[in-house]
Design brief:
By secondary structure, the protein is of the alpha+beta class. The longest helix has 17 residues. The chain is globular, with a radius of gyration of 15 Å.
Length: 137
């Protein structure tokens, strides 16, 4: 069994929940987005993806004997401004979810959980913390 997470850097900097859901659906269908195309590649998404794959390599980049230890059910996949993750349930999945949350915050990208229909923004995470926990923003 697996679950999905979707990360996006909206071209206009912020997006309402419905826009995030719609962008996720288009990505799942393999469709690009005119606004995303016009804005070009996102340095935030690039940095997020590189850092994530440095810790948990893409399935295409590991040995067959390492596949069972990978958190990925497939992929991960990405576009110019988004990343779609399909994560296996289990210990490695728990590990990658914690890292995804931290990297989403670090690189200031939206995090969408389509199973729970929940959008998490960096500003949401910062508001939930005590003032002494917020460093570097």
């Amino acid at each position: 069994m697996s679950f999905d997470l979707f990360l996006w850097d909206p071209p206009r900097g912020e997006a309402d929940d419905e826009s995030v859901r719609a962008r996720y659906e288009r990505a799942c269908e393999g469709l690009e987005d005119d606004d995303d195309d016009a804005a070009g590649e996102s340095p935030r998404v690039n940095a997020f993806f590189e850092e994530l794959l440095a810790r948990f390599p893409h399935l295409d980049r590991i040995l067959e004997s390492e596949v069972d230890a990978s958190p990925w059910s497939c992929g991960p996949e990405r576009g110019d401004r988004w990343v779609s993750l399909t994560i296996r349930w289990g210990e490695s999945g728990d590990e990658v979810v914690a890292l995804v949350g931290a990297l989403a915050e670090k690189h200031r990208v939206l995090l969408y959980d389509p199973q729970g229909d929940e959008v998490t923004r960096v500003t949401d995470r910062l508001r939930a913390r005590e003032p002494d926990e917020v460093v570097g923003f």
